[in-house]
Amino acid sequence: MGSVGTVICKTTLVCAPLMAETVEQIMTDMYKAKVQGADLVEIRLDYIKNFQPRQDLETILKKKPLPVLIVYRDAHITAEWRGQALLLPKWEGGQYEGDEHTRLETLHTAKELGADYIDFELKVASNLMEELKMNCHSGSKVIVSCYVNGVTPLEEDLNRLVMSMQSTGADIIKLVINATNITEISRIFHLLSHCQVPLIAYSIGERGLISQILCPKFGGFLVYGSMEGNSVPGLPTLENLRQAYKVEDIDEDTKVFGLISKPVGHSKGPLLHNPTFRRVKYNAIYVPMFVDDLKDFFSVYSSPEFEFAGFSVGFPYKEAVVEFCDEVHPLAKAIGAVNTIIRRSSDGKWVGYNTDREASITAIEDALKHRGCTNGETSFDSPLAGKQFVLAGAGGAGRALAVGAKSRGARVVIFDIDFERAKTLAHEVSGEARPFEEVFNFHPEKGAILANATPLGMHPNTDRIPVAEVTLQDYRLVFDSVYTPRKTRLLKDAEAAGAIIVSGVEMFLRQAIGQLNLFTGKEAPEEFMRDIILAKF
Ligand SMILES: O=C1C[C@@](O)(C(=O)O)C[C@@H](O)[C@@H]1O
């Protein structure tokens, strides 16, 4: 798709919205935004207290270290699109309570004083355009903006809306939606690829994040990034745009990979995969994809026009995603869970893999070996052989652990809140399922291994552990597949009880190494990836 559209902008700009209450603070923030990598700033005049239009604009525009986009939002502004009230999203919401004439006069003054861009809402733009164009001796560009806060219009309706915005004679168009499903973002990608005028188009919120990060691939005019310490909900930070995603390096040929999960914001995948792609000189980007419905997601994004090249699959989709793969690697099939999908370049088919199994089991084995817990005569025997392996959670991650432990000769005991699910998995690994109610009274064999594959312990449930604390002393090793936080409460308690502990970070790193090999077809730089993990966690 990136290749078929009319790509207007060669380089997408990064813009920091500033909402300070004093002109002094705006000046300070402008310099900070520049240091943090912004190409321009959007200044919200309506946030300035005791605003003196001409005087304050002169101060701001005379000394600006970066190009400036001026916005002056009315507190009551709504626009009409097909009879539906269009309200502003919160961070874009206006503060100005005065009369409309003064507001528009102020925007004209900003233009006259040399603001680089001025934003007019669609509702007022049509009447103003003639006047603005006649008065075009200043170099300011006019942005005509519109915010759709209700249901995202269908593609034809969005096209019509963009055309009506275009017909105002705007230099640049800005359209903001509030997507309730990631599939709605595909409409933004279409618009960005095909619009004849420079376009700023994105959705706010967690489901909309990809519209912002991938905007350079589809030729968007600018992307917003919030400043450090000033983060705006639903916007990426300047730091992430510049350092993790390096949006300046994204072009229409950049391959898109993403993590399909819900929730997704906790993942450290983008911080690990993106620098690694650059390290191995692979033109790709890895983004969080907040997915509500796998069927909808694949029905829209399987289309080759979006050029999505592969996915990591996280909680809670590792088992359900199997049916959306055209082929599944035998190992993943045996596990019944997929955490990696790639689009095979020869035929465009989705092929599913599992890199969790080896990642988790080798992390546990290496920790045991490191502490001298070998088993059997030769170093080829797994230290897990013959051990009791107690597993909490029989979902996607639990399946990988159970099948892995069984392959190493361990005896698996499974707890899951869903007893049927525990029984099914136990049957597959010739293990034993126990009702969840028993988990807090369950006393393992001395020297057993405990693995948590439930989300307990992960934010926001950081205080919870999946077994009774008193039983922890019986375990030789405790593993937690949760990796945010690095040391969960389970691991802290287990360490205090004398067990060897293995953090989910180790599994996370190893599964990502396996994924990177599959994503790029190149050998993953393991030391480089390990160093990132050490620095970022
Ligand atoms: O379990 C995990 C973690 C993960 O979901 C993440 O949070 O980045 C990514 C998955 O590939 C992996 O199997």
Task: Label this structure with key terms.
8-stranded parallel beta sheet, Rossmann fold, binds 1,3,4-trihydroxy-5-OXO-cyclohexanecarboxylic acid, shikimate 3-dehydrogenase (NADP+) activity, 17 helices, Shikimate dehydrogenase (NADP(+)), about 20% strand, TIM Barrel, disordered N terminus
CATH-defined superfamily of the largest domain: Aldolase class I
In the CATH hierarchy, what is the class of the largest domain?
Alpha Beta
Q: Enumerate the distinct ligands.
A: 1,3,4-trihydroxy-5-OXO-cyclohexanecarboxylic acid
**How would you sum up the major sheet?**
8 strands, parallel
CATH topology of the largest domain: TIM Barrel
Fraction in helix: 25-40%
Annotation, overall tally of beta strands: 22
Bin the strand percentage: 15-25%
By secondary-structure content and strand pairing, the structural class works out as alpha/beta
Indicate the CATH architecture of the largest domain.
Alpha-Beta Barrel
Q: Given the structure, what is the number of helices? A: 17
Overview of the molecule:
This is Shikimate dehydrogenase (NADP(+)). GO terms for molecular function: 3-dehydroquinate dehydratase activity; shikimate 3-dehydrogenase (NADP+) activity. Residues 504-532 form the SDH C-terminal domain. Residues 259-341 form the Shikimate dehydrogenase substrate binding N-terminal domain. This protein is 34% helix and 20% strand. By secondary structure, the protein is an alpha/beta fold. The longest helix has 17 residues, at 504-520. The two termini are 36 Å apart. It binds 1,3,4-trihydroxy-5-OXO-cyclohexanecarboxylic acid (DQA). 1,3,4-trihydroxy-5-OXO-cyclohexanecarboxylic acid (DQA) is lined by residues 259, 261, 267, 269, 312, 314, 339, 356, 397, 508, 511.
